[in-house]
């Protein structure tokens, strides 16, 4: 049975899912364009798809922001049809035996800093920074890192006053505990500094292969979160960043000094990482570690393109509703000399143009 949404997007295979709903690989029957489709039950409150659609529309045209082709309701489901992307950074990390080279991590970091600065420039926080929420592009955009999953994003600029939201305590933790900032753990309202602290944990994870608070065992989720927080508090930045370039420690320390309403030093962070990249003698050639793997050409995309052998339960429950519906419609700066004594070399033009 041909299951369609938006009249022309034919669902082919489930490629992901969670408490929010499910994600499918699909095709535009008019031009055979490959797309990704998110399905969410209409009774979901708050609707993550509605929030995502709003954010994608607001940020449309920004580098590393996926395109949205269609959104709406089909039967009992909210639907979001988006640009099809490649593997997540977590997938790439796993393919590379759970450790990435300094060169690759620096190229990723420069793009992440630009993505989060752009998101913040629109008045929003991401609030769920993790490798799973950054995907590599496909074909001509295979060198681009895309930010996705804005389902729990929120404004840090008040709609009415156009001022920074107020400092509050006693807030529930948002995001993913492994990468969450210390302030988020202890219930302080998230602000821009928290997205940056999460990025710091994420790039250290990708470079070192793990974080000290991974695999914490506890009887309850609250106990686990408390144990992760305690481990973060007990791990000084010099210990966390032992064995990797000192720029990473500087980055984390500077972020942790920011006040609630402070603008992060985005340009400074990019500058120190660019200088490190050049001093290491790296070439910005878009060759990430995973590009060197055998059988790269037959990775996840080709797997996605295979015809499904089974239909998921959500798909089964949606088939009649959506198929009938389709028929009815006819189908943030300081002197560098204070930190790095080595004279800075002008970064390669390729770095400037990409990020």
From TrEMBL:
<dbReference type="GO" id="GO:0006897">
    <property type="term" value="P:endocytosis"/>
</dbReference>
<keyword id="KW-0547">Nucleotide-binding</keyword>
<comment type="similarity">
    <text>Belongs to the protein kinase superfamily.</text>
</comment>
<dbReference type="GO" id="GO:0004674">
    <property type="term" value="F:protein serine/threonine kinase activity"/>
</dbReference>
<dbReference type="GO" id="GO:0005634">
    <property type="term" value="C:nucleus"/>
</dbReference>
<keyword id="KW-0723">Serine/threonine-protein kinase</keyword>
<dbReference type="GO" id="GO:0007165">
    <property type="term" value="P:signal transduction"/>
</dbReference>
<feature type="domain" description="Protein kinase">
    <location>
        <begin position="9"/>
        <end position="345"/>
    </location>
</feature>
<feature type="binding site">
    <location>
        <position position="38"/>
    </location>
    <ligand>
        <name>ATP</name>
    </ligand>
</feature>
<dbReference type="InterPro" id="IPR000719">
    <property type="entry name" value="Prot_kinase_dom"/>
</dbReference>
<dbReference type="InterPro" id="IPR008271">
    <property type="entry name" value="Ser/Thr_kinase_AS"/>
</dbReference>
<dbReference type="GO" id="GO:0005737">
    <property type="term" value="C:cytoplasm"/>
</dbReference>
<keyword id="KW-0418">Kinase</keyword>
<dbReference type="InterPro" id="IPR011009">
    <property type="entry name" value="Kinase-like_dom_sf"/>
</dbReference>
<dbReference type="Pfam" id="PF00069">
    <property type="entry name" value="Pkinase"/>
</dbReference>
<keyword id="KW-0808">Transferase</keyword>
<dbReference type="InterPro" id="IPR017441">
    <property type="entry name" value="Protein_kinase_ATP_BS"/>
</dbReference>
<dbReference type="InterPro" id="IPR050235">
    <property type="entry name" value="CK1_Ser-Thr_kinase"/>
</dbReference>
<protein>
    <recommendedName>
        <fullName>non-specific serine/threonine protein kinase</fullName>
        <ecNumber>2.7.11.1</ecNumber>
    </recommendedName>
</protein>
<dbReference type="GO" id="GO:0005524">
    <property type="term" value="F:ATP binding"/>
</dbReference>
<keyword id="KW-0067">ATP-binding</keyword>
């Amino acid at each position: 049975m041909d299951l369609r949404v938006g009249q022309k997007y034919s669902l082919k295979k489930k490629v992901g899912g969670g408490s929010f709903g499910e994600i499918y690989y699909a095709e535009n029957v008019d031009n055979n364009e490959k797309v990704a489709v998110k399905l969410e039950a209409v009774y979901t409150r708050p609707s993550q798809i509605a929030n995502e659609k709003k954010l994608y529309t607001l940020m449309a045209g920004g580098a590393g922001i996926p395109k949205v082709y269609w959104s709406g309701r089909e039967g009992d489901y909210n639907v979001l049809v988006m640009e099809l992307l490649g593997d997540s950074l977590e997938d790439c990390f796993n393919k590379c035996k759970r450790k990435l080279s300094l060169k690759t991590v620096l190229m990723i970091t420069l793009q992440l800093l630009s993505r989060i600065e752009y998101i913040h420039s629109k008045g929003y926080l991401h609030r769920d920074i993790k490798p799973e929420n950054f995907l590599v592009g496909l074909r001509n955009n295979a060198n681009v890192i895309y930010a996705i999953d804005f389902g729990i994003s929120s404004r840090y600029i008040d709609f009415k006053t156009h001022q920074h939201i107020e400092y509050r305590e006693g807030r529930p933790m948002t995001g993913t505990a492994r990468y969450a900032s210390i302030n988020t753990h202890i219930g302080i309202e998230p602000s821009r500094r928290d997205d940056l602290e999460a990025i710091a944990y994420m790039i250290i994870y990708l470079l070192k292969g793990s974080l000290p608070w991974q695999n914490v065992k506890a009887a309850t989720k609250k106990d686990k979160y408390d144990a992760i927080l305690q481990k973060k508090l007990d791990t000084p930045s010099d210990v966390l960043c032992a064995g990797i370039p000192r720029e990473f420690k500087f980055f984390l320390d500077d972020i942790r000094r920011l006040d609630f309403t402070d603008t992060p030093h985005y340009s400074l962070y990019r500058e120190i990482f660019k200088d490190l990249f050049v001093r290491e003698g790296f070439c910005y050639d878009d060759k990430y570690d995973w590009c060197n793997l055998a059988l790269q050409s037959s990775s996840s995309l080709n797997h996605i393109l295979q015809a499904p052998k089974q239909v998921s339960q959500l798909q089964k429950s949606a088939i009649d509703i959506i198929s009938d519906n389709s028929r009815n419609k006819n189908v943030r700066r300081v002197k560098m000399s204070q930190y790095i004594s080595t004279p800075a070399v002008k970064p390669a033009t390729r770095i400037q143009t990409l990020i």
